[in-house]
Amino acid sequence: MAWGNLVVYVALLLALAGIATSLARLFRRDERAARASRWITVALLALVTLVLAYLYAAFITSDVSIDYVWRYTREGHPLKYRLAGVLAGMEGSLLFWVWVALVPWVYEELTWRRRGIGQDLLDWTRVGVLSMVGVLLYVLSLHDIFRSTPADALLFYPDGYGLSPLLQTDLMVVHPPVVFIAYGLLVIPCAAALAHLVTGDRGWTRVSMWWGRAGWLFLTLGIGIGALWAYVVLGWGGYWGWDPVETSSLLPWLLLTAFMHAQLMNHRRGEYPIMAPVLGSLAFALVVFATFATRAGGLWVSVHTFPGDVSGSGLDRLGTILAEDGTVRTYLALVIGIVAVTALLAWRASRRRPREEERYYSLGDLISDDMLMFATVTLMAVTTLVTLVILVGGVNGVGPDDFHGPVGLLAVVGMALLLVCLVWRDLGRRRVALLALGTLAASGISAVAFRDQVFVAASVPVLAVALAGAAYRAARSWSRKRPWASLGLVSAHLVHLAVVLVLVGYVGSTFLSEEQGMTLEVGGAGQDFAGYTFKATALDLGSDSVFATIAIARGGRDLGTERPGQVLMDGQLRTEIRVRPGALEDVYLSYVDSSSANGTDTVDLTVKVLPMMTVLWGGMILMVGGIALRVIVERTTARREAPAAAEGAGASRSRGRRGRRGRGPRPPATEEGRYERLVEEELSRMDGKDD
After folding, report:
1. What radius of gyration, in Å, describes the C-alpha atoms of the chain?
2. What backbone phi and psi angles, to 5 degrees, belong to 308?
3. What is the CATH number of the domain that holds 596?
4. Range of the domain at 21
5. Mean per-residue pLDDT for 282-303?
6. Residue 651 binned pLDDT confidence (cut-offs 50, 70, 90)
7. What's CA 580's distance to the chain center, in Å?
8. Cα 550 to Cα 560: distance, rounded to the nearest angstrom
9. How many domains is the chain partitioned into structurally?
10. Using the 8-state DSSP alphabet, how is residue 357 labeled?
């Protein structure tokens, strides 16, 4: 066990050595240092892989002599829950995070020449990657992951304490690795963005773009799986409650979405040379902030089971946490460090850029690709900032109502903007402006007319028109003559369509849901609620479980039975939720209690009817599928055009320090070549439709 901890310290030293040799290459131009740095990175990955494999082996064999294994598994757990236990605690999650960050970076190390990436850009990106990896390894070293289990713990739980019953679900087997894959992949875009601010080399997008999109894919999937777990396991009748931990995980997704749009325009046309890398760096800072929010037990009043006291002011609680927990201090320092370095490098990069000639726009120019993209990026960034301010300001208690007004308003504006972006070239500027203004006017009139459901009334017109526009754009983007190339364009619009569907599902399930507690007599007449009839037909009492059989009918038609209940697992009660899905709404049953008196059994339930859940889950699936399709198409295209990238590599490297002064060559259009040509052809065909 001691050797495992020793390897963690050696890995930290290797990360520091990799940073030092990379800086030696950059400032002393020592090519031997560059080779040494690459081999150090490979050795670092090998060491981390060894430690992670050893940890997984310890969980598979239930080696409870290791305290970390003892805490998160026990002998007799199924294999899938033993594997899930590796990421159930902070130490295993950190180790996995480091490993995921290193795997794609080693790939970059092995392929940088044929992909036309400049040497200076590569070295500065390596410095960024290894710096963040080094911080994570430092935090890991604080916790002595392979320490022995205390004797008294083994005395009380000789087979291991075990994984929490709430985590013993298939969803929790998948959710943590998906989230930490996203976190690991996003290290590279952040490091590449900072490297671009240092060097001015526009080839940074060939390092960051694919990993940024892959990170967005896994982050979206992770949020969706987490929402589904909350829906079917936790028992509070929902999937998203704007809890601090949930909200902090949404923040990097929002800013990462803005970054992806800005980065694409930087890759295509060199636009957003400062904003794009700043957004990429800050998106990862929010990833670390989300980890900080999860670890800072007691800072926020939360429905999650944080340790710590939530009395007193937020500043007092933060001071206490920072004084007692070195891990939280390190996370907060990393967040502040990334923000400070980003601000300094952005200021430096802006000063060395030549002053651009001032541009003037007419009213008609406000509806154009450039202005609409700028509005999209700005709106996503503002939404992130507003959400962050509400979260930070609500340390003494924050709930859904605090977010619905400001964030909901920004979402409605975003849907109107999406509509204009999608169809303005088909309808022309005047028509699409009239359509957008008419839709917003209809939203305002609906909000006034239906004040009891003001948010739903305001959202419906905008969401309906945006949904039609997104569906139209996705269908129109398909080309039978060039099916594979057109998939890249279709996939982007499928993601847009999915975002609208998720918002439709969120609005319907949040603001149109109905909930009621009821007591049913077993074998009795039942109760009516929201158009359904619920009857308790049986109550099954076991030695460690209780289940109620509930018959559900609607309009005299039998819909079947569900069996909500409670199960005693590892000394803890877990509520077994049952959901009856439907095309337009779900029926959600949560067991509360049961009793027997005078020979009559009764069951207490919470019944909730949630509209549009199928639309929401369908939107999540479409969002993940759309971005996955985009990543696959563009990666395949990049491989086909890899030889073209190699031709530009020598020119990029030969500039040396010149690239560091911001005058590096424009990278060859390789990674999105075919997709770019398809877009340009489509835009040129539509140019004649502008008013």
Report:
1. 27
2. 115, 165
3. 2.60.98.40
4. 1-168
5. 82
6. very low
7. 28
8. 8
9. 2
10. P
Q: For residue 605, is it within any domain? A: yes
Q: How many whole angstroms separate alpha carbon 428 and alpha carbon 1?
A: 69
Among candidates 193, 173, 188, 185, which has minimal Cα distance to 220?
185
What is the DSSP track for 252-283? HHHHHHHHHHHHHHHHHH---TTHHHHHHHHH
Could you tell me where the DSSP H helices lie in 477-527?
483-511
Residue 350 lies in a domain: no
| Within-domain flag for 524 | yes
For 128, list phi and psi in degrees, rounded to 5: -65, -45
Identify the pLDDT of residue 100.
96
CA distance linking residue 445 with residue 449, whole number of Å: 6
Whole-angstrom distance, CA of residue 564 vs CA of residue 579? 9
Query: Residue 576 forms beta bridges with which residues?
Result: 565
Contact 48, 102 (CB under 8 A): yes
pLDDT tens-digit readout, 208-221? 988 999 999 999 99
567 in a structural domain: yes
Which ranges in 353-482 belong to alpha helices (H)?
369-393, 400-427, 429-449, 454-476
Beta-carbon count within 10 A of 14 CB:
22
Half-sphere exposure of 408 (CA within 13 A, CB side): 20
Distance CA 86, CA 25 (A): 38
The pLDDT assigned to 298 comes to 64
DSSP code for 150: P
**Host H or E run for residue 291:** helix 275-295
